[in-house]
Design goal:
With about 475 residues, the chain is of the alpha/beta class. About 50% of the residues lie in helices and about 10% in strands. It has 19 helices and 8 strands. Helix 10 crosses helix 11, helix 15 packs across helix 19 and helix 16 crosses helix 18.
């Protein structure tokens, strides 16, 4: 394994840094910005990069003690893996272990005051006197400050969920409890939960807010049963003013955990406290969850977080670039990213981060060629996505016409308008050229395609029904 070790205080001023060293320096700089100096200096600054195996894609990071390594593993493993993958796509795993020699200035042997690691149910870890980070119970997950309502980009795909989350966080009387958010991976559910918690604490500083994953709920409950101390577990969660449980689908089939979860829900709701639950599906589609839990979940407000459409993806990139003043990303690259990276918001932001980071590390200007080269693997993975034939079939089904009409010479409105919609979608969602699109629509000239695209763009501004049709078709094709 190729060893490449970086001292925690290293930066990009190293002489001829290796790709791994340059990537780690950029990741550290980004983590400091995102987490703030207190979290970074206490927990992340002491991390040392001890190796990158190019063959297996394994990155090894080390900290001065088992205590610190376990805390970082619990709270930052996913973020670190995502950051490494964004910088070096060949990275597959990140190993966090003890064994680094701490820098003298970091004071790494002593855990910092405000960030106590959560203690396991069966063995109490020594924790600093000042307790957990603000906004988290001693065994909950700390709230991420960058996940705020201000940084959440709102569009038609998520506006109901956003408004419900904001209403619940701001206090006062609400007509629903619990709030149930559902949607696919990387669409913003976790962002909204952290924003709810932060805003609630900002308005109610003395409130007890607990945020944890359903998996953590299960592990802690099982640990409490083994330690014969379920009373403390129940008292801690049920006394929360705001309890947020992420990814509830992970307790499917876990009978004893579901029993405790149900009673915890009842206690929170009956006491007038607030409850927020997320899952990857609506309550009706959750398998392996008891009917009485599903009934409770469905009895509140169920809000879906849909995949971002092109407009929302575009706004997300623009918002992200506001926090990256050093990045010079031309408009055509912004439009390209918004069109091509459509799987989820997390992937979109990761693609933008990679392009900007690679540009800074290589000193190259960001343009279309550089972007395509940098994101080649990601673009290949999404290349399959949408074909003109698939667009024609989907549009024909939607407007209830025969697919053959897409290539026919008929100009009747009931045929011409769907054909224009299909041409518009082919231009927006595929890399095909205008002449090629024209050929697939009965050998039409590229000027006909241009006219269709401009016509649909114009009509979307004034015809709400047509705009809704186009949005629905885009979601179906991209989904």
């Amino acid at each position: 394994m190729e060893e490449s070790v970086i001292h925690p205080d290293s930066d990009l001023s190293l002489d001829s840094p290796s790709p791994a060293e340059a990537a780690w320096a950029a990741i550290r700089a980004n983590l400091r910005r995102r987490c703030g100096p207190r979290t970074f200096d206490g927990w992340l600054k002491p991390i040392v990069l001890t190796g990158l195996d190019a063959d297996t894609g394994e990155v090894r990071l080390a900290l001065p003690s088992d205590f610190m390594a376990q805390w970082v593993e619990t709270h930052f493993a996913e973020q670190l893996l995502a950051a490494w993958k964004a910088m070096l796509p060949q990275v597959r795993t990140v190993i966090i272990e003890a064994g680094a020699t701490p820098p003298r200035s970091a004071g790494a042997d002593a855990a910092p005051a405000r960030f106590a690691a959560p203690a396991e149910p069966e063995e109490e870890a020594e924790s600093p006197a000042d307790g957990p980070p603000p906004g988290a119970d001693e065994r909950g997950t700390p709230l991420e400050p960058r996940y705020s309502f201000d940084s959440f980009v709102v569009g038609k795909a998520n506006e109901v969920a956003y408004n419900a989350a904001r209403t619940l966080a701001e206090g006062g009387r609400v007509g629903f409890n619990p709030l149930f958010l559902h949607g696919g991976t990387g669409l913003g559910k976790t962002h909204l939960m952290h924003a709810i918690g932060s805003e609630h604490l900002r308005r109610n500083a003395r409130s007890r807010v607990i945020y944890m994953s359903a998996e953590k709920f299960m592990y802690e409950f099982v640990g409490a049963m083994r330690a014969k101390d379920t009373h403390s577990f129940k008292a801690r969660l049920r006394s929360a003013d705001l309890l947020m449980i992420d990814d509830v689908q992970f307790i499917a089939g876990k009978d004893s955990t579901q029993e405790e979860f149900f009673h915890t829900m009842n206690e929170i709701i009956s006491a007038g406290r607030r409850l927020v639950i997320t899952a990857d599906r609506s309550p009706q589609d959750l398998d392996g969850i008891e009917a009485r839990i599903l009934s409770r979940l469905g009895g509140g407000l169920v809000a879906d977080v849909n995949p971002a459409d092109f407009e929302l993806r575009l706004n997300i990139i623009v918002k992200k670039l506001e926090s990256m003043p050093q990045a010079d990303v031309p408009e055509d690259v912004v439009m390209f990213l918004a069109r091509r990276i459509s799987a989820n918001v997390r992937e979109l932001e990761g693609a933008l981060n990679r392009v900007v980071a690679y540009s800074m590390l290589s000193g190259r200007t960001i343009d279309m060629d550089f972007t395509a080269e940098t994101l080649a693997d990601l673009l290949r993975a999404t290349q399959r996505r949408i074909t003109i034939d698939e667009i024609q079939r989907r549009v024909s089904d939607h407007y209830r016409i025969k697919q053959a009409e897409m290539s026919s010479a008929r100009r009747a409105r009931e045929v011409a308008r769907p054909r224009q919609v299909a041409m518009y979608l082919a231009k927006q969602l595929t890399p095909r050229s205008l002449p090629e699109i024209g050929r697939r629509f009965g050998g039409r000239d590229h000027t006909t395609v241009i006219h269709a695209v401009k016509q649909i763009e114009k009509l979307r501004q004034i015809d709400a029904e047509l705009d809704a049709d186009v949005r629905l078709l885009i979601r179906q094709l991209e989904g």
